[in-house]
Amino acid sequence: MTVRDMQEEILRLKKEKDICILAHAYQSQAVLEIADFTGDSYGLSRQAAQAPQQGVILCGVRFMAETCKILNPEKRVWLANPMAGCPMAEQMTPEMLRELKEQYPGYTAVAYINTTSALKTECDVCVTSSSAVSICRALDSDKILFVPDPNLGQYVAEQIPEKTFALWHGGCPRHMEVSGEEVRRARAAHPEALLLVHPECRPEVTEQADYVGSTTGILAFAEKSEAREFLIGTENSIVEHLQFSCPEKQFYPVSPALTCADMKLTTLADVYRTLEGRGGEEIILPASVMEGAARCIRRMVELGG
Ligand code: 13P
Ligand code: SF4
After folding, report:
1. Three-state SS at 23
2. pLDDT tens profile 14-28
3. CB under 8 Å to 32, separation ≥6 — which residues?
4. Ligand 1 mean position to 235 CA, how many Å?
5. Ligand 2 mutation pick, 24, 63, 175, 214, max ligand atoms within 8 A of CB
6. How far, in Å, from the CA of 42 to the mean position of ligand 1?
7. pTM here?
8. Name one GO cellular component term (predicted).
């Protein structure tokens, strides 16, 4: 079977079985082409809540499939590759957050969506990289305990100086790798390029950027911009996607470290096998986790607009 044959078979099967395919922007070009919706974590959550189909296959990482299931308890949801997790999401357990909350009485607990569903049961609201600033601003509370990513937390805190933020020490092992010095070298090599970075990068990186935003934000900025060259400071798949959508422009990765092994796991064949009923993992969560995490995720959707 060629890539194209398999894509055609997937398109036929998903229609026949009434299944919607959601793919995160970090997925491969071959997977994005067969998806009903592609986007950042926030876009996928919103789309999951609206999808008319009876089933959803999520191409991305585990917390995204869990979020999709929690927003669609009546639907069957599969993670196309069961091994695809997010190392950041595994960093903090509910017990660790309970202990941390005791040190910050009176703070509203805000969890990045890159966390487990079990952890979300302990939080007041969750946020994504594209909704974090507007949601933290909209919260009644002026004291925010932001977990687990201190880089995103600090970026949000800088946009809302009137609120007090307490941060934790987690973070994305990939985005954290990029240093300010590496970025300076990349800028020197491409002096005309605009620097677009994800807020999971360290402050010494975001402070040099021309634009800081989510994966979809970076794609949209580069597509609309009149500039011709861009340095991309997020997972390197975004460099490839931009080369397809804007072949007349030049895109350079800021660092080879920005390769997320988990996001790379899902293949077209995984999607095909899941549709055939011989692959993927159906997401089934305990009722207490479904209820507890739904409160926090639904609040994000309400506040995020
Ligand atoms: P987005 O919210 O921008 O999609 O980011 C998700 C992610 O995992 C970034 O590393
Ligand atoms: Fe998780 Fe980082 Fe991979 Fe995003 S890039 S899925 S935060 S490990």
Report:
1. strand
2. 999 999 999 999 999
3. 23, 25, 38, 241
4. 9
5. 175
6. 9
7. 0.95
8. cytosol
